[in-house]
Inverse folding.
């Protein structure tokens, strides 16, 4: 089995090497791991670091945002015959050793998409109170739309099998894609589940959602989920 | 006296819309305006020319529709046309955004393939 670890990277010069090094230490029995960084046209020295350290990477010529960057990684994984791919953020929030927890349900063919969740065992970094509320609202909204309940719906720490990769190869939302993709997977009849993981507070870089944008984020994502549902129900 | 001012403004608007039409034609000929948009603009200019020449047209249409103050009809149609065209532009923009995303992704993936080949050679 081949696993691709996809690390979207936008201005992560402080962290990227550390994260990649941690990924390279990972060893999972019977699984061959390849780490691939997707540089989303960073304006800092990320690209120089990737080149100097000879880190396996894709380099986007224009900035596409997190959705477009992650999708590039998924396309790479799908076309190069990987059996599964995991998204791992470049800012150090997702500890690579937790991937071994995500991979079990896929190897046992119980799930197609596994989400690393902070809120099942409530260990590790739990985000701020306001954000937890926002996440809870989106969780209910998603349940209302799709009858699928995912507690950590904004978690970007996800592992997809090849069946799921085939879907995201074709379609992936651009901005703030996480909650929308749950609807996408759910309505494509993929089996989605969560496993508890421990996340860390980011140790460099910035969240893609600044404080003043929270309301915009909520509205955009809620609408995006709704339209994703209508689109998939109508046109398949 | 009553007739002089309207004729002046009529001449002005006819000249104005003809210049506009010439401008659009020039842009199309030079290939700076894609044909799919040029149709919209040509129709727009033809309307301008039509109402510049046919002075009573607006009043007649307003009366037929039961609008008491004819110029308000201009605003209604004008706003309506502009909003529709803006939506159309957003659609075009979104389509381009999607194309750019796909092109950049393919470019990044191709570059990777080339690099791998170079390494192997």
């Amino acid at each position: 089995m081949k696993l691709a670890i996809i690390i979207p990277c936008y201005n992560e010069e402080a962290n990227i090497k550390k994260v990649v090094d941690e990924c390279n230490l990972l060893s999972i029995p019977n699984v061959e791991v390849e780490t691939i960084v997707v540089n989303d046209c960073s304006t800092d020295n990320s690209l120089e670091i990737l080149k100097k350290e000879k880190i396996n990477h894709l380099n986007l010529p224009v900035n596409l945002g997190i959705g477009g960057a992650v999708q590039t990684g998924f396309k790479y994984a799908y076309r190069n015959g990987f059996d599964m791919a995991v998204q791992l953020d470049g800012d150090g929030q997702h500890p690579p050793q937790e991937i071994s927890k995500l991979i079990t349900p896929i190897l046992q063919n119980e799930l197609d998409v596994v989400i690393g969740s902070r809120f099942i065992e409530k260990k590790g970094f739990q985000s701020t109170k306001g954000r937890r509320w926002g996440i809870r609202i989106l969780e209910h909204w998603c349940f209302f739309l799709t009858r699928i309940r995912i507690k950590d719906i904004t978690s970007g720490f996800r592992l997809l099998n090849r069946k799921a990769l085939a879907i995201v190869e074709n379609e992936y939302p651009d901005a703030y894609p996480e909650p929308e993709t749950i609807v996408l997977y759910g309505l494509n009849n993929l089996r989605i589940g969560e496993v508890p993981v421990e996340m860390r507070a980011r140790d460099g870089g910035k969240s893609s959602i600044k404080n003043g944008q929270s309301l915009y984020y909520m509205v955009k994502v809620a609408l995006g989920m709704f339209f994703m549902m209508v689109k998939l129900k109508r046109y398949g | 006296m009553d007739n002089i001012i309207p004729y002046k403004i009529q001449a002005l608007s006819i000249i104005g819309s003809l210049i506009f039409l010439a401008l659009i034609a020039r842009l199309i000929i030079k290939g700076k305006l894609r044909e799919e948009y040029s149709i919209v603009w040509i129709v727009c200019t033809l309307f301008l020319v039509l109402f510049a020449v046919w002075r009573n047209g607006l009043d007649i249409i307003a009366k037929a529709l039961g609008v008491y103050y004819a110029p308000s009809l201009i605003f209604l149609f004008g706003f309506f046309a502009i909003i529709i065209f803006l939506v159309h532009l957003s659609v075009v923009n979104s389509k381009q955004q999607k194309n750019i995303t796909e092109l950049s992704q393919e470019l990044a993936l191709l570059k990777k393939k080339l690099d791998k080949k170079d390494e192997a050679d």
Summary: The radius of gyration of chain B is 24 Å.
